Amino acid sequence: MNRKRIQRLMREMGWVRVKKRKKRRTTQSQHLFPRYPNLVQDLAVVRPDQVWVADLTYIYLHNECVYLAVVMDVFTRSLRGWHLGRSLDEQLTWTALHQALAQRKPEIHHSDQGVQYATTRYVQSLESAKVQISMAAVGEATQNGYAERVIRTIKEEAVELSEYRDYHDAFQQIGRFIEEVYNRKRIHSALGYLTPSEFENQWQAQLSAMRVVMN
What are phi and psi of 135, to 5 degrees? Predict the structure, then answer.
């Protein structure tokens, strides 16, 4: 057991009152960059890389606060890209996007209207890849619900159960959780109790079989 788990258990049993850290605001939607309409509202997502969603959050370490950005494929729930940075700037989200685009390309990229997703560099990266840009309305977190949920999963199943020595340790442990546990070992009820990797492989195999039959 680490310190975080002991604190949580003691708090739940009423043995000690642990002072909560102040929440940090990560979404700054007051900016002059262009806004984009929500293209995914009521959209049926039926294939991999049809829609990617992106979000970011903060993580407290012993002596500093760091920030995690993720990019997830909605259909397979696979995390396509991620980055842990020390600064809440466009480099954080762009690095996660760049990692994702190096492997795949979505039809639509959806996020909130935070400045990190609206900067010229970020938008140009999407436009160069011929990706449609979609944004949730300001103050409507539910319109980016898939991204909100995966952030919550990472915090509950990795961050809150881990004791990070420093930024580099956090980077390694969170990366290991995303790439080895979340994508390859964690099952999802929405995927028929398969992992994102298994679900995507199964879908690709079924698609290949259908093509063989049609030919």
Answer: -135, 145
Domain ranges across the chain: 26-214
Q: What is the pLDDT of residues 185-207, one digit of tens each?
A: 999 999 999 999 999 999 999 99
Q: Give the rounded percent of residues in the chain with a pLDDT score beyond 90.
A: 78
Supply the mean pLDDT for the chain. Answer: 90
Q: Specify the pTM.
A: 0.86
CA torsion 169-175-177-182 (nearest 10°) is 170
One CATH from 2.40.40.10, 3.30.420.10, 3.30.160.20, 3.40.30.10 for 26-214: 3.30.420.10
Residue of 46, 36, 72 lying closest to 196 (CA atoms): 72
Cα gap 72→98, rounded to integer Å: 13
Distance CA 97, CA 16 (A): 42
